[in-house]
Specification:
Elements lengths: L10 E5 L4 H12 L3 E6 L2 H13 L3 E6 L5 H8 L6 E4 L14 H26 L4 E6 L12 H21 L4 E8 L8 H4 L2 H8 L13 H8 L10 E4 L8
């Protein structure tokens, strides 16, 4: 019997798995004994990511998936038996609310909210009868706001409420649905910004006075995917250095 908190032997789908947070999550899950299925729109990129995990001794496969297209999601899941889902795929645009186009606003909502629902629904249908765990990757901007990110904040707030609604409906099937809300996490893409005066000023507003690291998300993610959180559903966990409680 696996020890409490273990994900060894579980089959876990990670969307947006070809780079960034999704690739890091996949690496973490693989190193902890899970069989990882990486999904992304670009099959070549996600195949490279899966090959990287296999080279490290893990079990990983790649599937093409456009989370905004229900047919693409269904095709990607055909023949799979899932234990868990990390619903990570997302996009953003940094545009003032008076200037953002309806098309750009809709694109963010389609991927970040409608896409999360589409994949969660397909995964839950897959898990029905066995149970499982779904972790939706939201953001602290689903719980507070920032300038020029109206579409992103609205989409992530929707993910938070969607998580709670799905948790309520699917508890009867032993399918747990929780949300992970990262704060400002340092990545190669944002490192230069956080070295600027504006970036340094933002970091000073975080009570812990530092950025999070990708590894800071590992513990909460493993908790939510393992039986250590078997009595948690509809929970929203922020990993933000105290940003949400700052003035």
């Amino acid at each position: 019997m696996p020890e409490l908190g273990s994900i060894a032997g579980k089959t876990i789908l990670v969307t947006g798995g070809s780079s960034g947070l999704g690739l890091h999550f996949a690496q973490t899950l693989s190193r902890n004994g899970a069989e990882v299925i990486l999904a992304a729109r670009r099959l070549d990129a996600v195949k490279d990511a899966a090959e990287q995990l296999r080279a490290e001794g893990g079990k990983a496969t790649a599937v093409r998936m456009d989370v905004t297209n229900p047919d693409s999601v269904a095709e990607a899941l055909e023949g799979l038996t899932l234990d868990s889902l990390v619903n990570n795929a997302g996009v953003t645009t940094t545009t003032p609310a008076m200037d953002i186009s309806a098309e750009d606003f809709g694109s963010v909502i389609d991927t970040n909210l409608k896409g999360v629902f589409t994949v969660a629904q397909a995964a839950a249908r897959n898990m029905k009868g066995r149970g499982g765990s779904i972790v939706n990757i939201a953001s602290i901007l689903g719980l507070r706001v920032a300038g020029a990110l109206s579409a992103y904040a609205a989409s992530k707030a929707g993910v938070v409420q969607l998580t709670k609604a799905l948790a309520l409906e699917w508890a009867r099937y032993d399918i747990r649905v929780n949300a992970l809300c990262p704060g400002y996490i340092e990545t190669p893409l944002n490192r230069d910004f956080f070295a600027t005066p504006a970036g340094e000023a933002l970091v000073r507003r975080i009570p812990q006075r530092k950025l999070g690291q990708l590894s800071d998300l590992d513990g909460p993610l493993l908790l939510l995917l393992s039986d250590a959180s078997r009595y948690m559903t509809g929970s929203v966990i922020a990993v933000d250095g105290g940003h949400l409680v700052s003035s």
